Amino acid sequence: MPAPILIVGGGLAGLFCALKLAPRRVVVLTPGSIDEGAASFWAQGGVAAAVLDTDSPERHAEDTLKAGAGIVDARVALGMAREARARIEDLLSYGVPFDRAGGKFTPSREAAHSERRVVRVKGDTAGRAIMETLVAAVRATPSIELLEGFSAQELLTRDGGVIGLRARGRDGLLRDFLSHATVLATGGIGHLYRVTTNPKEARGLGLAMAARAGAIIADAEFVQFHPTAIDIGVDPAPLATESLRGEGAIIVDRFGHRFMADIDPGAELAPRDIVARGVFASVAAGRGAFLDSRAAVGAEFPTRFPTVYASCMAGGVDPVTEPIPIAPAAHYHMGGVATDAQGRTALAGLWAAGEVASTGVHGANRLASNSLLEAVVFAARIAAHIPATQEEAAVAVPPSARDEAAAPRQDLVDELRHVMARDVGVIRDRAGLTRAAAAILRIEAATTNVELRNMALTALLATSAALARRESRGAHFRSDFPRAEDALADRSYMTEAQARAIAAEALK
Questions:
Q1: Where are the beta strands (DSSP E) in 71-222?
Q2: Upper half-sphere CA count for residue 165 (Cβ side, 13 Å)
Q3: Element (H or E) spanning 54, and its range?
Q4: Residues 178 and 63 in one domain
Q5: Are 126 and 372 a contacting pair, CB within 8 Å?
Q6: In which element (H, E) is residue 135 found?
Q7: Residues 98 and 151 in one domain
Q8: In which element (H, E) is residue 252 found?
Q9: Cross-strand partners of 332
Q10: Which of 192, 254, 380, 392, CA to CA, is 20 to 30 A from 355?
């Protein structure tokens, strides 16, 4: 009998892939509880899909290309948009209670969309509703085995291909899990930054493991900063969903001036990178930034956006009667492990889906609510693509060993997050990126902890890619190269060795 398919990560991409693989045997490894740990629970906006008669997949793809600032893979983006409705129907079949009226979807509009096409649940609870539904479906599926509390450490390889994963359990013991097919669904890198909307699990561990195994990393420099994280001193920062701006909320400074209207014709509905830089500049100048929903939402806030309302009230802000303090926060990584249109990486036996992957659909700046769509579309493709009859040759499993450096030093973690926010953040330049590279390499050398070394490698990949891209494009903005260059309108690809070489050259 073939070994079970191994899925690393319990977010939307991992669970959807597991369900699509049924009744084939699947093992899902997660670092924490499947009921809370994934960033997918936190998604507020919804799933982008052309579900109205006035819309089309072609228009959806066109908006995706525009937001991606010239480097979106047009063929892959159109394919994703055309599959969107079918994946929405899949989620409905599992029981996701999408907002509907008279049997028809009632989607919202978000920034840079030309139509209302964000299919949501109760305004701002789509992520949690989808995940709670899928968790229940997974727990009820006999072919899926859940192994919670296993922190991935490294991919196991043989003859240039991936044959499984080494993970540390809650007991501190290292265990090897063997499979002819491993699917990385480990999420993004947001928690490498001091201010982020992402949970602790989003530390780029899967990306680093793939790079160490020899995978190609694409577009690592493109980190999207959400412009409207609620600035109340909470880590991770709660998110004020973009749907609020879609419903008419405005961004003002402490003097009540609507400054985004001075920066871009789209004002609050400009692409996220533009809004993030505008908010960042206002905060840096001491004018502050606030999301004012009083006129647009007002007294309906508690019922229309209950998640945001609860977060605000917990921080002492009543959004019904006062503006919400906001700041840009690391939110989504457009880069990741490079895959083809079926989610296959450059390494035999390894696939990647969700935020850890880079499929080419996001380009330099993800279109709002395309993240959940990408996760389900490519998870379904991977499930259909993994060979069904491949036999796994016998592989000797090393005896379990105790990980003597099970917890990373918190001071080094805090320093890494500070460095990334300061030097590899909303606005970058060569001096800051070079300073970041030096600090990251020093942190990496100062620890034997595998997880911290993986965090440092992912940080180095993002930093080196940002050093190499001497222009500003999408979410990547360099003050020393403030314009986009037509000659550089291509995706970036990098190995671990190349990232280290770029850093070493910068530090000469």
A1: 100-101, 104-105, 118-119, 144-148, 151-158, 161-168, 173-178, 182-184, 217-218
A2: 30
A3: none
A4: yes
A5: yes
A6: helix 126-139
A7: yes
A8: strand 250-252
A9: 224
A10: 392
Non-local (6+) Cβ contacts of 433 within 8 A are 423, 424, 463, 466, 467, 506
Residue where the block lists tokens 């259909």: 384
Helix ranges restricted to H, 236-369: 243-246, 260-263, 272-284, 301-304, 306-314
Of the candidates 185, 492, 276, the residue with the CA atom closest to the CA atom of residue 363? 492
CB 225 within 8 Å of CB 425:
yes
Tokens linked to 31: 């670092």
Q: Which of 109, 120, 272, 344 is catalytic?
A: 272
Radius of gyration, alpha carbons of the chain: 22
Say if residue 25 is in the same domain as residue 155.
yes
Residues 201 and 98 grouped into a single domain: yes
Question: Which residues make beta-bridge pairs with 325?
Answer: 290
CATH number at residue 394: 3.50.50.60
Q: How far apart are CA 428 and CA 4, in angstroms?
A: 44
Task: Report d(CA 325, CA 317) in Å as an integer.
Answer: 8
Report pLDDT for 206: 98
Q: How far is it, in rounded angstroms, from Cα 387 to Cα 142?
A: 20
Distance of CA 326 to the CA centre of its chain: 20
The one-letter amino acid code at 27 reads V
Determine the pLDDT at residue 29.
96
420-429 residues labelled b (16+ CB within 10 A) or e (exposed) = bbebbbbbbb
| Unique residue bearing structure tokens 């402490």 | 254
Among residues 381, 402, 423, which one ends one of the domains?
402
Residues 381 and 431 in one domain: no
- Concatenate the DSSP letters of all residues of 320-344 into one string: TTSPEEEEEEEEEES-EEE--TTSB
> Tokens 């602790």 belong to which residue?
200
Structural domain range at position 434: 403-506
Distances (CA, A) of 259 to 82, 253, 323: 37, 7, 15
Instruction: Mark the ranges of the chain whose per-residue pLDDT is less than 50.
Output: 391-396
Q: 161 - beta bridge partners?
A: 158, 348
Paired residues of 401 in beta bridges: 174
Q: What are 363's two structure tokens?
A: 């380009």
CB 247 within 8 A of CB 107: no
DSSP E strand boundaries for 81-205: 100-101, 104-105, 118-119, 144-148, 151-158, 161-168, 173-178, 182-184
- Domain total for the chain? 3
CATH number at residue 497: 1.20.58.100
Out of 402, 422, 437, pick the residue that ends a domain: 402
The gap from C-alpha 80 to its chain's centroid, in whole angstroms, comes to 17
Whether residues 181 and 246 share a domain: the answer is: no
Reply yes or no on whether 272 is catalytic.
Answer: yes
> Do 210 and 252 share a domain, yes or no?
no
Token representation of residue 488: 């550089």
